[in-house]
Amino acid sequence: MTNFEITSLDFTTTEVKLWAAGDRRFSDWPVVYLLDGPVGSSKVPSASRRRRVGVAAERDVYVGESLNVAARMRQHFESTAKEHLTGLRVIVDETFNKSVCLDLESFLIRMLAGDGAYQVLNRNDGIVDANYFDRDRYRESFEDVFDRLRADGVFTRSLPEIENSDLFKLSPFKALTPDQTIAVEGVLEGLFEDLTRSQRSTTVVQGDPGTGKTVVAIYLLKLIADIRGSAALDEPDDDTLFSSFFTERHRELLQGFKVGIVVPQQSLRASIKQVFRKTPGLHPDMVMTAFDVGASDEEFDLLVVDEAHRLNRRANQPSAAQNKQFREITTTLFGADDKSRTQLDWIIAKSAHQIFLLDAGQSVRPADVPAEHLHELVARAQSADRYAGLASQMRVRAGSGYVDYVRNILGNQVEIELAPDFGEYDLRLFDDLAEMREEIRQRDAEFGLARMVAGYAWEWKTKNDKDAYDIVIDDVSMRWNGTQTDWIASPKALEEVGSIHTVQGYDLNYAGVIIGPDLRYDAETNRIVFHRESYFDKKGKENNPALGLTYSDDDLLRYVTNIYTVLLTRGIRGTYVYVSDPPLKAHLARVISSTSPAT
């Protein structure tokens, strides 16, 4: 049963004063409030620019909580950053305490950022996710608050729609896990120490799939922007996670600080740009490729590199223009066309400070930076005390042991055991692809974000013939993803099959993974093997004459098993598996259950 009230009024000194005088709770009771209004005049882009960069949020919103909301409003009236806000909503409930209000405040900030109708003005000094008495019961009432606000036009989408969106999943307004919190705090402390000493630095954040490396990258950039843009008269509350960084000294160190984020994958890069468009302090121009950085005339104070394992070494690039650019950038930066140089070297040469977020086990092409280079980078960061590890599994509800399990069953271990107890996680092996596709459709109807994905074991025929089919197995005919950017949210995604290049870095609720004939099982040697003739990613198997490298089947096996590891770790709630090669299917049937978990 919910007892909350939502009072709406104009955000003017006269109306707020009259309203506050009528109820003692507005000067002595924990409440949550929303301030909103048209986008501030300094932030309003021209109509032509809105069309160009896709700015959709036409209103600003600020969410707060206070034990004395009347006094807090007087502070907001004095803030130039909020002088353009025109509306106030106050949420009050006789049963709410301070902990509940902090939690509701965090919930609304996250949902508003994910909905995208408003530009959230809150600083990123630490979303609260603390436990407290009867939290589950109180959180049920949050959904009622959400529904009331949605009916009032504050939200434009349902909770499931918001939670399945890229804006929500990639938003900087996150409640961090304990190891993410430690990582962010350690990275910032190290960065400010190095800035104070005027010394260059390289930091590494390492973690398995699903540990939230991208979340940490975006969170750090927003936090740095908020520290830089903060004012001494508007300090965060002492109980926020990172309040100690909002000091005059830290602000001074960040003045004129040029920052960028490098994202190698095209689709993920586009999604992050969309988030940056709607986040004060961030800008889509901050999101770059390694080529953008290398060719820039400017030097960067800080570059954050997400999915750093996907940076390139010298190899045949997708176009002749990029091959030429690779040579030119290397020559400009190092005085000669040194073919041993990689994009990793470019980043270090172009910035005083770097933060690399990586997992060498997610390298999927021979052109990626070699694993040994990444290991050397990690070792240097560890020796300089500029290293953080992420372990908590944020994506897969099967727990942290699931990633190791997937790597073991694909890694030619001498002995592998039946899947451990993954609780309610729905891991299943299918004999019939049509049945698996139908199950994925049903899960999409229930939860959204259920998609079919596959290894690159079928030719991309529809690239030139839109009436053809790419993947034909028995009586099932399917096409590869029809778009390279934001495929997961595209209208036809449920009817298509995504490749590694459209899903790496993303979450799904359910993933239907087709393991193609590029992976097979050799019963004589009891090993999983790579079948070159069934692998159609040309950049994924071509040799490297520039460096004199020829790749054997065993060399390529590592990349292909990495691809399937990534695909098999996309599903939050479950992973369904179909295996094309009958011996491999029989081999994996020993370690993957063919029935659904008990419900």
Structure description:
It is globular and about 85 Å long. The protein is an alpha/beta fold. The protein contains 21 helices and 20 strands. The protein folds into 3 domains: 5-163, no CATH class; 179-390, 3-Layer(aba) Sandwich (Rossmann fold), CATH 3.40.50; 401-589, Rossmann fold (3-Layer(aba) Sandwich). This is Helicase ATP-binding domain-containing protein. It comes from Plantibacter elymi. InterPro entries: Helicase_ATP-bd, P-loop_NTPase, SLFN_3-like_DNA/RNA_helicase.
What brief labels describe this structure?
alpha/beta; 21 helices; Rossmann fold; 599 residues; 3 domains
Average residue-wise pLDDT: 91
Total strand segments: 20
> Within the largest sheet, what's the order of strands?
12-20-17-13-16-15-14
Q: Based on helices, strands and strand pairing, what is the structural class?
A: alpha/beta
CATH architecture of the largest domain: 3-Layer(aba) Sandwich
Count of all domains:
3
What Rg do the Cα atoms give? Answer: 26 Å
CATH topology of the largest domain: Rossmann fold
CATH top level of the largest domain is: Alpha Beta
Q: What share of residues are in beta strands?
A: 15-25%
Any idea what the shape is? globular
Largest sheet: 7 strands, mixed
Q: Kindly report how far apart the N and C termini lie.
A: 28 Å
Low-confidence region ranges: 41-56, 595-599
Separate helix tally = 21
The level of helicity is: 25-40%
InterPro entries: Helicase_ATP-bd, P-loop_NTPase, SLFN_3-like_DNA/RNA_helicase
Pfam family, one: SLFN-g3_helicase
Protein name: Helicase ATP-binding domain-containing protein
Domain Helicase ATP-binding: 172-377
